[in-house]
């Protein structure tokens, strides 16, 4: 991610607010939460993304990693 983590977090949150049905934004937000050490929040956010895009097997693998880290 580029820039300060807080700025990136705010940008991804704003993107999700504007387009809550866009799973890629949710996945990006989840990845950032994971990078910030918030595995439980990251997992919950990624679960929301997967509800919208259940065919993303790679995201299920990421979710497994988050569960393991939590």
Unreliable residue stretches: none
Strand proportion? under 5%
Secondary-structure element string: HHHH
Integer-rounded radius of gyration: 11 Å
Helix content: over 70%
Shape: flat
Distance between the termini: 22 Å
Number of helices: 4
The major pleated sheet works out as: none
Structural class by secondary-structure content: mainly alpha
Number of E-type strands: 0
Query: What average pLDDT do the residues reach?
Result: 92
Explain the layout of strands and helices.
Layout: H1 5-18, H2 23-35, H3 39-52, H4 57-69
Q: How would you characterize the overall build of this protein?
A:
- This protein is mainly α.
- It is built from 4 helices and no strands.
- The protein has helices at about 5-20, 25-35, 40-50, 55-70.
- The radius of gyration is 11 Å and the shape is flat.
- The protein starts with a helix and ends with a helix.
- The model has no long low-confidence stretch (mean pLDDT about 90).
Name the descriptors:
70 residues, mainly alpha, 4 helices, flat
Offer a quick outline of the entry:
By secondary structure, the protein is mainly alpha-helical. Helix content is 77%, strand content 0%. The mean pLDDT is 92.
């Amino acid at each position: 991610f580029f820039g300060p983590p807080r700025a990136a977090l705010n940008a991804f949150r704003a993107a999700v607010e504007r387009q809550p049905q866009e799973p890629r934004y949710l996945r990006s937000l989840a990845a950032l939460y994971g990078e910030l050490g918030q595995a439980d929040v990251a997992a919950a956010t990624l679960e929301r993304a997967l509800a919208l895009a259940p065919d993303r097997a790679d995201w299920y693998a990421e979710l497994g990693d988050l569960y393991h880290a939590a």
